[in-house]
Amino acid sequence: MKIFNTLTRQKEEFIPIEEGKVRMYVCGPTVYNLIHIGNARPMIVFDTFRRYMEYKGYKVNYVSNFTDVDDKIIKKAIEEGVDAEEISGRYIAECKKDMEGMNIMPATVHPLATQEIDGMIAMIQTLVEKGYAYAAKDGTVYYRTGKFASYGKLSHKNLDDLQAGHRDIQVTGELKEDPFDFVLWKPKKEGEPAWDSPWGQGRPGWHIECSVMSKKYLGETIDIHAGGEDLIFPHHENEIAQSEAASGKEFSRYWMHNGFLNINNQKMSKSLGNFFTVREIAEKYDLQVLRFFMLSAHYRSPLNFSADLMEAAKNGLERICTAAEQLERLKSASTKEEMQEQEEALYAQSAQFQDKFEAAMEDDCNTADAVSAVFELVKFINMHVSAECSKEYLQKLYDRLDNLCGILGIHIHKEEQMLDAEIESLIEERQNARKNKDFARADQIREELLQKGILLKDTREGVTWKRA
Hints:
Layout: E1 2-5, E2 10-13, E3 21-26, H1 37-55, E4 59-64, H2 71-80, H3 84-101, H4 117-129, E5 133-135, E6 141-143, H5 159-165, E7 182-187, E8 202-204, H6 206-218, E9 222-228, H7 232-247, E10 252-258, E11 261-263, E12 266-267, H8 278-282, H9 287-294, E13 303-305, H10 307-333, H11 341-362, H12 367-383, H13 391-408, H14 420-435, H15 439-451, E14 454-459, E15 462-467
Parallel strand pairs: 3-4, 3-9, 9-10, 11-13
Antiparallel strand pairs: 1-2, 5-6, 6-7, 7-8, 11-12, 14-15
Helix pairs in contact: 2-3, 4-6, 4-7, 6-7, 9-10, 10-12, 10-13, 11-12, 11-13, 12-13, 14-15
Protein backbone atom coordinates (compact mmCIF):
# COMPACT_ATOMS: atom_id res chain seq x y z
CA MET A 1 0.00 0.00 0.00
CA LYS A 2 1.34 3.41 -0.97
CA ILE A 3 0.54 6.72 0.72
CA PHE A 4 1.40 10.22 -0.48
CA ASN A 5 3.31 11.62 2.48
CA THR A 6 2.96 15.42 2.79
CA LEU A 7 6.23 15.40 4.75
CA THR A 8 8.30 14.04 1.84
CA ARG A 9 5.97 15.09 -1.00
CA GLN A 10 6.06 11.64 -2.54
CA LYS A 11 4.26 8.32 -2.44
CA GLU A 12 5.79 5.92 0.01
CA GLU A 13 5.22 2.28 0.81
CA PHE A 14 3.23 2.09 4.04
CA ILE A 15 5.16 0.18 6.68
CA PRO A 16 3.50 0.28 10.13
CA ILE A 17 5.50 0.74 13.31
CA GLU A 18 4.02 -2.51 14.64
CA GLU A 19 3.18 -5.27 12.19
CA GLY A 20 -0.57 -5.67 11.63
CA LYS A 21 -1.45 -2.53 13.60
CA VAL A 22 -2.06 1.08 12.59
CA ARG A 23 -2.03 4.10 14.91
CA MET A 24 -3.94 6.91 13.20
CA TYR A 25 -4.91 10.39 14.41
CA VAL A 26 -7.37 12.57 12.49
CA CYS A 27 -8.05 16.13 13.63
CA GLY A 28 -11.72 16.55 14.47
CA PRO A 29 -13.99 19.61 14.43
CA THR A 30 -14.26 22.53 16.82
CA VAL A 31 -17.78 22.10 18.18
CA TYR A 32 -19.50 25.48 18.26
CA ASN A 33 -22.08 24.89 15.51
CA LEU A 34 -23.43 22.21 13.16
CA ILE A 35 -20.65 20.72 11.03
CA HIS A 36 -20.44 21.90 7.41
CA ILE A 37 -19.68 19.90 4.29
CA GLY A 38 -16.05 21.01 4.44
CA ASN A 39 -15.78 19.23 7.81
CA ALA A 40 -17.42 16.20 6.22
CA ARG A 41 -14.74 15.59 3.60
CA PRO A 42 -11.88 14.49 5.91
CA MET A 43 -14.36 12.54 8.02
CA ILE A 44 -15.51 10.56 4.98
CA VAL A 45 -12.21 10.03 3.17
CA PHE A 46 -10.19 8.97 6.21
CA ASP A 47 -13.04 6.78 7.48
CA THR A 48 -12.90 5.06 4.06
CA PHE A 49 -9.13 4.63 4.31
CA ARG A 50 -9.58 3.15 7.77
CA ARG A 51 -12.21 0.73 6.44
CA TYR A 52 -9.84 -0.40 3.69
CA MET A 53 -6.99 -0.99 6.14
CA GLU A 54 -9.31 -3.05 8.33
CA TYR A 55 -10.44 -4.98 5.23
CA LYS A 56 -6.74 -5.77 4.61
CA GLY A 57 -6.47 -7.18 8.12
CA TYR A 58 -4.91 -4.30 10.04
CA LYS A 59 -6.09 -3.55 13.57
CA VAL A 60 -6.60 0.22 13.45
CA ASN A 61 -6.47 2.39 16.55
CA TYR A 62 -8.30 5.42 15.11
CA VAL A 63 -8.36 8.54 17.27
CA SER A 64 -10.31 11.66 16.30
CA ASN A 65 -10.79 14.47 18.80
CA PHE A 66 -13.41 17.09 19.50
CA THR A 67 -11.98 20.55 20.25
CA ASP A 68 -14.37 21.58 23.02
CA VAL A 69 -12.56 24.68 24.34
CA ASP A 70 -11.95 27.48 21.85
CA ASP A 71 -12.59 31.19 21.25
CA LYS A 72 -15.54 30.43 18.94
CA ILE A 73 -17.19 28.16 21.52
CA ILE A 74 -16.75 30.79 24.22
CA LYS A 75 -18.16 33.52 21.94
CA LYS A 76 -21.23 31.38 21.19
CA ALA A 77 -21.72 30.62 24.90
CA ILE A 78 -21.58 34.33 25.78
CA GLU A 79 -24.09 35.13 23.01
CA GLU A 80 -26.52 32.54 24.37
CA GLY A 81 -25.82 33.22 28.03
CA VAL A 82 -24.82 29.63 28.80
CA ASP A 83 -21.64 27.77 29.79
CA ALA A 84 -19.13 26.83 27.09
CA GLU A 85 -19.58 23.20 28.18
CA GLU A 86 -23.27 23.36 27.22
CA ILE A 87 -22.39 24.61 23.72
CA SER A 88 -19.73 21.98 23.11
CA GLY A 89 -21.88 19.17 24.53
CA ARG A 90 -24.81 20.15 22.33
CA TYR A 91 -22.77 20.27 19.13
CA ILE A 92 -20.80 17.10 19.85
CA ALA A 93 -24.17 15.31 20.03
CA GLU A 94 -25.30 16.97 16.77
CA CYS A 95 -22.00 16.13 15.09
CA LYS A 96 -22.37 12.47 16.04
CA LYS A 97 -25.86 12.43 14.47
CA ASP A 98 -24.45 13.78 11.21
CA MET A 99 -21.56 11.31 11.33
CA GLU A 100 -24.02 8.46 11.77
CA GLY A 101 -26.02 9.76 8.79
CA MET A 102 -22.84 9.75 6.67
CA ASN A 103 -22.02 6.24 7.97
CA ILE A 104 -18.80 7.34 9.66
CA MET A 105 -17.55 4.62 11.98
CA PRO A 106 -17.09 5.84 15.57
CA ALA A 107 -13.41 6.40 16.37
CA THR A 108 -11.68 4.00 18.72
CA VAL A 109 -11.53 7.05 21.00
CA HIS A 110 -13.10 10.51 20.59
CA PRO A 111 -11.07 12.46 23.18
CA LEU A 112 -12.22 15.86 24.43
CA ALA A 113 -9.63 18.58 24.91
CA THR A 114 -11.10 19.64 28.27
CA GLN A 115 -10.55 16.15 29.68
CA GLU A 116 -6.83 16.17 28.85
CA ILE A 117 -5.72 19.45 30.49
CA ASP A 118 -3.34 17.74 32.96
CA GLY A 119 -1.45 16.13 30.08
CA MET A 120 -1.20 19.48 28.30
CA ILE A 121 0.21 21.18 31.37
CA ALA A 122 2.75 18.35 31.75
CA MET A 123 3.91 18.64 28.12
CA ILE A 124 4.19 22.43 28.38
CA GLN A 125 6.28 22.03 31.55
CA THR A 126 8.59 19.62 29.68
CA LEU A 127 9.00 22.15 26.86
CA VAL A 128 9.80 24.93 29.34
CA GLU A 129 12.37 22.74 31.10
CA LYS A 130 14.02 21.89 27.78
CA GLY A 131 14.17 25.54 26.75
CA TYR A 132 11.63 25.21 23.94
CA ALA A 133 9.03 27.33 25.74
CA TYR A 134 8.94 30.33 28.06
CA ALA A 135 6.41 32.10 30.27
CA ALA A 136 5.70 35.78 29.66
CA LYS A 137 4.86 38.28 32.42
CA ASP A 138 1.10 38.03 31.86
CA GLY A 139 1.03 34.22 32.31
CA THR A 140 1.06 33.34 28.60
CA VAL A 141 3.39 30.50 27.70
CA TYR A 142 4.94 30.65 24.22
CA TYR A 143 6.74 28.05 22.11
CA ARG A 144 10.22 29.22 21.08
CA THR A 145 9.89 28.46 17.36
CA GLY A 146 13.43 29.46 16.43
CA LYS A 147 14.91 26.79 18.73
CA PHE A 148 13.30 23.92 16.78
CA ALA A 149 15.79 23.47 13.95
CA SER A 150 13.47 21.65 11.54
CA TYR A 151 10.49 23.99 11.94
CA GLY A 152 8.72 24.21 8.58
CA LYS A 153 9.59 20.70 7.40
CA LEU A 154 5.93 19.75 6.84
CA SER A 155 4.91 22.91 4.97
CA HIS A 156 8.32 22.87 3.23
CA LYS A 157 9.17 26.45 4.13
CA ASN A 158 11.85 27.78 6.40
CA LEU A 159 11.15 30.39 9.05
CA ASP A 160 12.20 33.27 6.79
CA ASP A 161 9.73 32.16 4.10
CA LEU A 162 6.98 31.64 6.65
CA GLN A 163 7.51 35.05 8.21
CA ALA A 164 7.28 36.67 4.79
CA GLY A 165 4.23 34.73 3.65
CA HIS A 166 2.18 34.45 6.84
CA ARG A 167 2.39 37.82 8.51
CA ASP A 168 -1.31 37.46 9.34
CA ILE A 169 -0.56 34.86 12.03
CA GLN A 170 2.33 36.74 13.60
CA VAL A 171 1.54 38.63 16.76
CA THR A 172 4.06 41.23 17.76
CA GLY A 173 4.47 42.64 21.24
CA GLU A 174 6.90 43.00 24.09
CA LEU A 175 5.77 39.73 25.69
CA LYS A 176 7.14 37.63 22.82
CA GLU A 177 10.80 36.96 22.16
CA ASP A 178 10.02 36.46 18.49
CA PRO A 179 6.89 37.43 16.52
CA PHE A 180 6.62 33.87 15.20
CA ASP A 181 6.46 32.17 18.61
CA PHE A 182 3.04 30.61 19.20
CA VAL A 183 0.86 30.18 22.28
CA LEU A 184 0.88 27.04 24.42
CA TRP A 185 -1.07 28.45 27.39
CA LYS A 186 -3.38 31.48 27.61
CA PRO A 187 -4.08 33.42 30.82
CA LYS A 188 -7.65 33.54 32.07
CA LYS A 189 -10.05 36.21 30.83
CA GLU A 190 -13.20 37.20 32.67
CA GLY A 191 -16.14 34.90 31.89
CA GLU A 192 -14.02 32.23 30.20
CA PRO A 193 -13.41 28.65 31.40
CA ALA A 194 -10.03 28.26 33.10
CA TRP A 195 -7.84 25.67 34.80
CA ASP A 196 -5.09 25.97 37.42
CA SER A 197 -1.53 25.75 36.13
CA PRO A 198 2.01 26.66 37.23
CA TRP A 199 1.60 29.89 35.22
CA GLY A 200 -1.72 30.87 36.77
CA GLN A 201 -5.28 30.12 35.77
CA GLY A 202 -5.87 29.83 32.05
CA ARG A 203 -6.51 27.43 29.18
CA PRO A 204 -4.42 25.66 26.53
CA GLY A 205 -3.62 26.87 23.04
CA TRP A 206 -5.19 24.89 20.19
CA HIS A 207 -2.03 23.20 18.88
CA ILE A 208 -0.95 21.61 22.17
CA GLU A 209 -4.31 19.83 22.49
CA CYS A 210 -3.79 17.45 19.54
CA SER A 211 -0.15 16.73 20.46
CA VAL A 212 -1.22 15.58 23.92
CA MET A 213 -4.28 13.58 22.85
CA SER A 214 -2.29 11.81 20.13
CA LYS A 215 0.47 10.92 22.60
CA LYS A 216 -1.95 9.64 25.26
CA TYR A 217 -4.01 7.37 23.04
CA LEU A 218 -1.48 6.36 20.36
CA GLY A 219 2.01 6.85 21.79
CA GLU A 220 4.88 9.25 21.13
CA THR A 221 5.34 8.09 17.52
CA ILE A 222 2.30 7.28 15.40
CA ASP A 223 1.84 5.80 11.93
CA ILE A 224 -0.49 8.33 10.28
CA HIS A 225 -1.65 11.84 11.10
CA ALA A 226 -4.40 13.18 8.85
CA GLY A 227 -6.64 16.18 8.26
CA GLY A 228 -7.56 18.89 5.78
CA GLU A 229 -4.76 20.64 3.90
CA ASP A 230 -5.68 23.90 5.65
CA LEU A 231 -4.20 22.33 8.82
CA ILE A 232 -0.72 21.78 7.37
CA PHE A 233 0.30 25.22 8.54
CA PRO A 234 0.31 26.29 11.26
CA HIS A 235 -1.56 23.57 13.17
CA HIS A 236 0.25 20.41 12.08
CA GLU A 237 3.58 22.20 11.77
CA ASN A 238 3.22 23.32 15.39
CA GLU A 239 2.16 19.85 16.52
CA ILE A 240 5.40 18.46 15.12
CA ALA A 241 7.47 21.16 16.82
CA GLN A 242 5.84 20.57 20.22
CA SER A 243 5.73 16.79 20.11
CA GLU A 244 9.23 16.18 18.76
CA ALA A 245 10.83 18.77 21.06
CA ALA A 246 9.12 17.18 24.07
CA SER A 247 9.80 13.52 23.23
CA GLY A 248 12.95 13.68 21.11
CA LYS A 249 11.23 11.22 18.75
CA GLU A 250 9.58 11.41 15.33
CA PHE A 251 5.93 12.43 15.83
CA SER A 252 4.24 10.84 12.81
CA ARG A 253 5.74 8.74 10.03
CA TYR A 254 3.11 9.58 7.41
CA TRP A 255 1.02 12.73 6.92
CA MET A 256 -2.16 12.66 4.80
CA HIS A 257 -4.11 15.79 3.83
CA ASN A 258 -7.31 16.09 1.82
CA GLY A 259 -7.85 18.91 -0.69
CA PHE A 260 -10.24 21.83 -0.34
CA LEU A 261 -13.95 21.69 -1.03
CA ASN A 262 -15.28 24.52 -3.22
CA ILE A 263 -18.91 25.47 -3.83
CA ASN A 264 -19.74 26.19 -7.47
CA ASN A 265 -16.01 26.85 -8.03
CA GLN A 266 -15.84 29.35 -5.16
CA LYS A 267 -14.47 29.03 -1.64
CA MET A 268 -17.22 28.20 0.85
CA SER A 269 -18.09 31.31 2.84
CA LYS A 270 -21.05 32.57 4.84
CA SER A 271 -20.55 36.02 3.33
CA LEU A 272 -20.96 34.59 -0.19
CA GLY A 273 -24.11 32.75 0.86
CA ASN A 274 -22.70 29.39 -0.28
CA PHE A 275 -22.16 27.88 3.16
CA PHE A 276 -23.88 24.51 3.68
CA THR A 277 -24.11 22.38 6.79
CA VAL A 278 -24.41 18.61 6.56
CA ARG A 279 -27.87 18.98 8.14
CA GLU A 280 -28.98 21.27 5.29
CA ILE A 281 -27.77 18.76 2.69
CA ALA A 282 -29.73 16.04 4.55
CA GLU A 283 -32.93 17.99 3.88
CA LYS A 284 -32.44 17.43 0.13
CA TYR A 285 -30.47 14.20 -0.14
CA ASP A 286 -29.84 10.96 1.67
CA LEU A 287 -26.40 11.48 3.25
CA GLN A 288 -25.21 8.35 1.45
CA VAL A 289 -25.32 10.55 -1.68
CA LEU A 290 -23.05 13.11 0.00
CA ARG A 291 -20.63 10.35 0.98
CA PHE A 292 -20.65 8.90 -2.55
CA PHE A 293 -20.06 12.37 -3.99
CA MET A 294 -17.06 12.94 -1.69
CA LEU A 295 -15.50 9.65 -2.82
CA SER A 296 -15.94 10.44 -6.52
CA ALA A 297 -12.68 12.42 -6.54
CA HIS A 298 -9.21 11.63 -5.25
CA TYR A 299 -8.94 12.88 -1.68
CA ARG A 300 -5.93 15.11 -2.44
CA SER A 301 -7.68 16.87 -5.33
CA PRO A 302 -9.79 19.98 -4.89
CA LEU A 303 -13.47 19.01 -5.04
CA ASN A 304 -16.21 21.22 -6.42
CA PHE A 305 -19.65 20.91 -4.85
CA SER A 306 -22.69 21.80 -6.96
CA ALA A 307 -26.32 20.75 -7.37
CA ASP A 308 -25.52 19.14 -10.74
CA LEU A 309 -22.67 17.06 -9.30
CA MET A 310 -24.82 15.96 -6.36
CA GLU A 311 -27.54 14.86 -8.80
CA ALA A 312 -24.92 12.91 -10.76
CA ALA A 313 -23.79 11.24 -7.52
CA LYS A 314 -27.41 10.43 -6.65
CA ASN A 315 -27.96 8.83 -10.07
CA GLY A 316 -24.71 6.89 -9.84
CA LEU A 317 -25.58 5.53 -6.43
CA GLU A 318 -29.04 4.61 -7.74
CA ARG A 319 -27.42 2.53 -10.51
CA ILE A 320 -25.49 0.53 -7.93
CA CYS A 321 -28.52 0.02 -5.67
CA THR A 322 -30.68 -0.99 -8.64
CA ALA A 323 -28.17 -3.70 -9.60
CA ALA A 324 -28.22 -4.95 -5.99
CA GLU A 325 -32.03 -4.97 -5.95
CA GLN A 326 -32.07 -6.94 -9.21
CA LEU A 327 -29.75 -9.56 -7.73
CA GLU A 328 -31.97 -9.91 -4.65
CA ARG A 329 -35.14 -10.13 -6.73
CA LEU A 330 -33.73 -12.77 -9.09
CA LYS A 331 -32.33 -14.79 -6.19
CA SER A 332 -35.70 -14.92 -4.40
CA ALA A 333 -37.37 -16.15 -7.60
CA SER A 334 -34.65 -18.63 -8.63
CA THR A 335 -35.38 -22.37 -8.46
CA LYS A 336 -31.72 -23.41 -8.89
CA GLU A 337 -29.52 -23.67 -5.81
CA GLU A 338 -25.91 -24.38 -6.79
CA MET A 339 -23.69 -22.63 -9.33
CA GLN A 340 -23.36 -24.18 -12.75
CA GLU A 341 -19.99 -24.53 -14.52
CA GLN A 342 -20.62 -21.49 -16.75
CA GLU A 343 -21.60 -19.43 -13.70
CA GLU A 344 -18.42 -20.43 -11.87
CA ALA A 345 -16.40 -19.14 -14.83
CA LEU A 346 -18.35 -15.87 -14.88
CA TYR A 347 -17.98 -15.38 -11.13
CA ALA A 348 -14.22 -15.99 -11.42
CA GLN A 349 -14.15 -13.39 -14.20
CA SER A 350 -15.85 -10.83 -11.91
CA ALA A 351 -12.84 -11.01 -9.56
CA GLN A 352 -11.02 -8.64 -11.93
CA PHE A 353 -13.17 -5.77 -10.66
CA GLN A 354 -12.27 -6.52 -7.06
CA ASP A 355 -8.61 -6.58 -8.11
CA LYS A 356 -9.02 -3.18 -9.80
CA PHE A 357 -10.75 -1.83 -6.71
CA GLU A 358 -7.96 -3.00 -4.42
CA ALA A 359 -5.25 -1.69 -6.77
CA ALA A 360 -6.91 1.74 -6.68
CA MET A 361 -7.15 1.77 -2.89
CA GLU A 362 -3.56 0.54 -2.56
CA ASP A 363 -2.46 3.52 -4.66
CA ASP A 364 -2.85 6.32 -2.10
CA CYS A 365 -6.52 5.63 -1.36
CA ASN A 366 -7.70 6.45 -4.90
CA THR A 367 -11.43 6.22 -4.25
CA ALA A 368 -12.26 7.75 -7.65
CA ASP A 369 -10.76 4.73 -9.45
CA ALA A 370 -12.23 2.39 -6.81
CA VAL A 371 -15.70 3.77 -7.59
CA SER A 372 -15.02 3.23 -11.32
CA ALA A 373 -14.23 -0.42 -10.57
CA VAL A 374 -17.57 -0.73 -8.74
CA PHE A 375 -19.38 0.66 -11.80
CA GLU A 376 -17.57 -1.88 -14.00
CA LEU A 377 -18.78 -4.63 -11.68
CA VAL A 378 -22.34 -3.24 -11.89
CA LYS A 379 -22.15 -3.30 -15.71
CA PHE A 380 -20.89 -6.88 -15.59
CA ILE A 381 -23.74 -7.88 -13.26
CA ASN A 382 -26.35 -6.27 -15.51
CA MET A 383 -24.96 -8.17 -18.53
CA HIS A 384 -24.54 -11.56 -16.88
CA VAL A 385 -27.56 -12.20 -14.69
CA SER A 386 -31.04 -13.41 -15.61
CA ALA A 387 -33.99 -15.40 -14.29
CA GLU A 388 -32.10 -18.59 -15.25
CA CYS A 389 -29.27 -17.97 -12.76
CA SER A 390 -28.71 -20.00 -9.59
CA LYS A 391 -29.19 -18.64 -6.10
CA GLU A 392 -25.53 -19.30 -5.23
CA TYR A 393 -24.23 -17.34 -8.25
CA LEU A 394 -26.55 -14.40 -7.59
CA GLN A 395 -25.65 -14.36 -3.90
CA LYS A 396 -21.91 -14.45 -4.59
CA LEU A 397 -22.19 -11.52 -7.00
CA TYR A 398 -24.28 -9.63 -4.45
CA ASP A 399 -21.70 -10.30 -1.73
CA ARG A 400 -18.86 -9.10 -3.97
CA LEU A 401 -20.71 -5.85 -4.72
CA ASP A 402 -21.72 -5.43 -1.07
CA ASN A 403 -18.15 -5.98 0.18
CA LEU A 404 -16.65 -3.36 -2.12
CA CYS A 405 -19.36 -0.82 -1.37
CA GLY A 406 -18.98 -1.61 2.33
CA ILE A 407 -15.33 -0.52 2.17
CA LEU A 408 -16.57 2.77 0.70
CA GLY A 409 -19.12 2.99 3.52
CA ILE A 410 -22.01 2.73 1.05
CA HIS A 411 -25.17 0.72 1.84
CA ILE A 412 -26.55 -1.08 -1.20
CA HIS A 413 -29.57 -2.60 0.52
CA LYS A 414 -32.48 -0.17 0.65
CA GLU A 415 -34.83 -0.45 3.57
CA GLU A 416 -38.46 -0.92 2.63
CA GLN A 417 -40.21 2.40 2.24
CA MET A 418 -42.59 3.43 4.98
CA LEU A 419 -46.24 3.55 4.01
CA ASP A 420 -47.87 6.99 3.81
CA ALA A 421 -50.23 6.04 6.62
CA GLU A 422 -47.28 5.16 8.91
CA ILE A 423 -45.66 8.50 8.17
CA GLU A 424 -48.85 10.46 8.84
CA SER A 425 -49.36 8.57 12.11
CA LEU A 426 -45.85 9.47 13.33
CA ILE A 427 -46.32 13.11 12.30
CA GLU A 428 -49.56 13.24 14.30
CA GLU A 429 -47.75 11.72 17.32
CA ARG A 430 -45.01 14.34 16.91
CA GLN A 431 -47.55 17.16 16.84
CA ASN A 432 -49.16 15.86 20.03
CA ALA A 433 -45.75 15.57 21.69
CA ARG A 434 -45.00 19.20 20.84
CA LYS A 435 -48.36 20.34 22.24
CA ASN A 436 -47.54 18.49 25.45
CA LYS A 437 -44.06 20.10 25.48
CA ASP A 438 -42.44 16.67 25.12
CA PHE A 439 -39.81 18.08 22.77
CA ALA A 440 -37.45 15.15 23.27
CA ARG A 441 -40.02 12.76 21.80
CA ALA A 442 -40.85 15.21 19.00
CA ASP A 443 -37.16 15.43 18.06
CA GLN A 444 -36.83 11.66 18.28
CA ILE A 445 -39.70 11.17 15.80
CA ARG A 446 -38.22 13.72 13.40
CA GLU A 447 -34.86 11.94 13.57
CA GLU A 448 -36.52 8.54 13.11
CA LEU A 449 -38.29 9.77 9.97
CA LEU A 450 -35.08 11.36 8.67
CA GLN A 451 -33.27 8.05 9.04
CA LYS A 452 -36.03 6.51 6.89
CA GLY A 453 -35.52 9.18 4.24
CA ILE A 454 -38.57 11.25 5.19
CA LEU A 455 -38.00 15.00 5.31
CA LEU A 456 -40.33 17.17 7.41
CA LYS A 457 -40.98 20.88 7.00
CA ASP A 458 -42.89 22.88 9.59
CA THR A 459 -45.02 25.62 8.00
CA ARG A 460 -47.76 27.97 9.21
CA GLU A 461 -50.32 25.71 7.54
CA GLY A 462 -48.96 22.60 9.27
CA VAL A 463 -46.34 19.93 8.64
CA THR A 464 -45.46 18.86 5.11
CA TRP A 465 -43.27 15.92 4.21
CA LYS A 466 -41.49 14.36 1.27
CA ARG A 467 -39.24 11.40 0.55
CA ALA A 468 -35.52 12.15 0.06
